[in-house]
# Entry
Amino acid sequence: MSLRNYGALAICAIATLVIGLAGCGGTANGSSAGPATASGGISPKKFADAVHAVMMADRTVYTKHVVNRLKSQESPVTPSEYWKDEDNTIPLPAQMFRMGSEIVSEDEEAGFQYALKSKWPLNEQNKAATPMEIEALDYIAEHDDNFYGEEELGGKKYLVAVYADKAVANACFDCHNNHTNRAADYPEFKMGDTMGGVIVRVPLD
# Structure
């Protein structure tokens, strides 16, 4: 994929990443995006920052204005991890995020992938899968900054951009702090804590 195409992809992503609802929310911080490329497109780093910004906006809106609103109104419809098997329930923010990432992953024209991972996964599928993901999750847990790196998977090079996934609503950390899958050393999260990381992977070849 040429760098020029990232410009078009960014526009498409911003238009279509309504599906980018995620775990709990947060905003991109730390390093600024790179400059536009000489070809007139945007850099892979800036593309990753752009799609991440859309993801954060959507998941924060869902968490604050859907999940929290239902809870505050004591609505008969509630968010539940087991929403597929229970009546009057809706998916958790993290589940919304994962379903969106799965759709993008299946789209060969999307040109990128994303996922929500954590150093403290309540679900094994949210555990770091590569050495760079482990390094990135350690970094964002200890620094108020984004992580950017490059890795090679299956013979292809990728930009790996990782952003802190912070608790932006009580529903976020209440769910994690009271989950039955918590290990003995699981952190006690509070508002603003980094609970995981959003990983955006963009091909460089």
Remarks:
- Confidence is low (pLDDT under 50) at residues 1-36.
- The CA atoms of residues 111 and 138 lie 26 Å apart.
